[in-house]
Write a structure and sequence with these properties.
Pfam families: Glyco_hydro_10. Belongs to the glycosyl hydrolase 10 (cellulase F) family. With about 575 residues, the protein is an alpha/beta fold. The chain contains eleven helices and 26 strands. The strands form five sheets. An eight-stranded parallel beta barrel has the order 14-15-16-17-18-19-21-22, surrounded by five helices. Strands 2-3-11-6-9 form a five-stranded antiparallel β-sheet.
Length: about 575
């Protein structure tokens, strides 16, 4: 007699709305310069009169600064502060009006404001003065004249007491401001939102229905659930030492699904001496990664840092440099096209400009164009540091990152390129509210976004800070993957080691293992009810489902299934003959 078991899989959408004390990822974070500012987030939070509809009530001015109110043709009111010149002739910063605030200890603050300057463009910083007198940079933006730019940021207060909020620029400009908001969230509120977001964006509920040959539901069927590969890419930097150390190989490959070669695919590793190319180490590392189905990010085609060029490169004339670059680009990209998932094309081109000084301001867009022509499948990343880490660094702030990305996109022939946002994430003491605000802003580019080189400097809070950064990245709906910059070296790591030289976990490695296990947590077995169904809350990934039933004796079937953010389009059926 033949029996048929029908297994149906239905993905249940988890789109219910949820809010924790009004905290949400800001999907309205503007990357455009607007004629009029938007309304303040959170209705201004603890800021009084943030839209200046009541004049300058609640705001104060620094000494010798003239402040007033102006309005746009549409009637929108905003504060205008005229720059004060130093009587001594010394340079003085341009300042806005300020407001006295009361800060609460152990509280995250989310900041937003709309800014404009009187002429040209200027880097404007937001400051929060804490109860101990420290001036904390809570965000910055490249503000323009003639339109409004949104500054998003934040900071954490660790003690309670009086403080101030104000804006400042080193440029000789008048600062205009509007729609200022500063919203507090307790640590518990922040963490609860982060947990809920992670559950929402990294997991889905799947309904498994078991039916007999007659189509009737089969109760008491056993469903064994095996996660084969996690869906969220999480990895680490990799070094050539793995080729000679089985213990290193075992430790690394049992944990990570993606990797970046720390140095072995860089130009200076492949052509230290001119015309003497050597890819043997990179080839061997790639072969090992492929053995374990570990995906590799190509790092990098070029590095814009003057100090990272080989000695033979810097003295080349323009024609010689172009020829050397063409050779390098074609050599590395064609060699690894189809074998790497990403390219860091012109590494750190916001902080550095070696190729721009040689080839002109369109050097980066031209190089992206050429790489994209040779590898049409890999995502081409703009990889940069301090965009998340240091709100006071004027070079890589989100607004400038967006401008550079748009320059690459708008270059002739680049409109169809697969581009990505690469955020290195080298932290000392992370400013978590600012990190989230920067991710919100960059998410408006609607491009794949990865944390590409995550580490935290050694110190008493290294484990705690790394956990905050990794959880924040994992929970953000626009982050598509994370790689740590904790490559192992016998003589010591860059700034963060996960293991000792015997590949036994250090405290940071133990944390990483804890997070990997947590992000994979799921029910491994379930029994169908009277309706023949069972619902499984599963992290995204690739699975095998093994289904058995008492009426089938020892026979069982194994069904492959992928769970991701997209709901299953329809029921999937499988027949088991016994």
């Amino acid at each position: 007699m033949e029996k048929v078991l029908v297994l149906s899989l239905i993905c249940i959408s988890l789109c219910q709305g949820w809010v924790v004390q009004s905290l949400e990822y800001d999907h309205t974070a503007s990357i455009e310069c607007l004629r009029d500012p938007m309304k303040p987030l959170y209705n201004g939070g603890i800021i009084q009169n943030g839209e200046f509809n009541s004049g300058l009530m609640g705001w104060s001015t620094h000494r010798d600064i003239k402040a007033g109110l102006s309005s746009s043709p549409s009637g929108n009111k905003f504060a205008v502060v005229q720059r004060a010149d130093s009587l001594s002739g010394a340079a003085v910063p341009s300042r806005s009006v300020y407001q006295k605030i009361q800060l609460q200890g152990d509280t995250h603050y989310s900041l937003s404001a709309w800014l404009q300057v009187s002429a040209g463009a200027a880097h404007v910083k937001a400051f929060v003065k804490t109860p101990n007198g420290e001036r904390v940079v809570a965000g910055s933006v490249s503000a323009q004249s003639g339109c409004w730019s949104m500054l998003k940021g934040g900071m954490t207060a660790y003690s309670s007491g009086p403080g101030q909020i104000f804006f400042e620029s080193d440029a000789p400009v008048d600062i205009w401001m509007d729609s200022v908001s500063l919203q507090p969230f307790t640590f518990d509120e922040w963490d609860a939102h982060r947990q809920q977001s992670a559950a929402k964006v990294r997991r889905s509920t799947v309904r498994v229905v078991v039916r007999g040959a007659d189509g009737a539901p089969m109760a008491n069927a056993t469903v064994i659930v095996e996660l084969l590969r996690a869906g969220f890419p999480f990895g680490n930097a990799l070094t050539k030492e793995i080729l000679d150390l089985p213990a290193y190989e075992k430790w690394f490959t049992s944990r990570f699904t993606v990797a970046t070669f720390e140095n072995e695919m860089k130009w200076y590793s492949n052509e230290w001496a001119q015309n003497n190319e050597d890819y043997r180490v990179a080839d061997a590392m790639l072969k090992l990664a492929q053995k374990y189905n570990i995906k590799i990010r190509g790092h990098n085609v070029f590095w814009d840092d003057q100090n990272s060029q080989m000695k033979w490169v810097t003295p080349l004339n323009l024609d010689q440099l172009k020829a050397a670059m063409q050779k390098r680009l074609k050599s590395v990209v064609t060699r690894y096209a189809g074998k790497v998932i990403h390219w860091d094309v012109v590494n750190e081109n916001l902080h550095f400009n070696f190729f721009e000084t040689k080839l002109g301001p369109n050097a980066s867009p031209m190089i992206y164009n050429q790489v994209g022509a040779l590898d049409k499948n890999a995502i081409l990343f703009m990889n940069e540091f301090n965009t998340l880490e240091q709100p006071g660094d004027p070079n890589p702030v989100p607004s400038k990152y967006v401008t550079k990305m748009k320059q690459i996109q708008s270059y002739p022939g680049n409109s169809a390129l697969k581009l990505g946002v690469g955020l290195e994430s080298h932290f000392s003491t992370p400013n978590i509210p600012y990190m989230r605000s920067a991710l919100d802003t960059l998410a408006q580019l609607k491009l794949p976004m990865w944390l590409t080189e995550v580490d935290v400097v050694k110190g008493p809070n290294q484990v705690k800070f790394l956990e905050q950064v990794l959880r924040e990245g994992y929970a953000h709906p626009s982050v598509n993957g994370m790689i740590m910059w904790a490559a192992w070296h016998a003589k010591g790591c860059y700034v963060m080691c996960l293991t000792d030289n015997s590949f036994k976990n250090l405290p940071v490695g133990t944390l990483v293992d804890k997070l990997i296990a947590e992000w994979k947590t799921h029910k491994t077995a379930a029994t169908t009810g009277a309706d023949g169904a069972v619902e499984l809350d599963l992290p995204h990934g690739d699975y095998n489902l093994t289904v058995s039933h008492p009426s089938l004796g020892t026979n069982a079937t194994v069904r492959a299934m992928t769970v991701d953010a997209a709901p299953l389009a329809s029921e999937r059926l499988i027949n088991i003959k016994v």
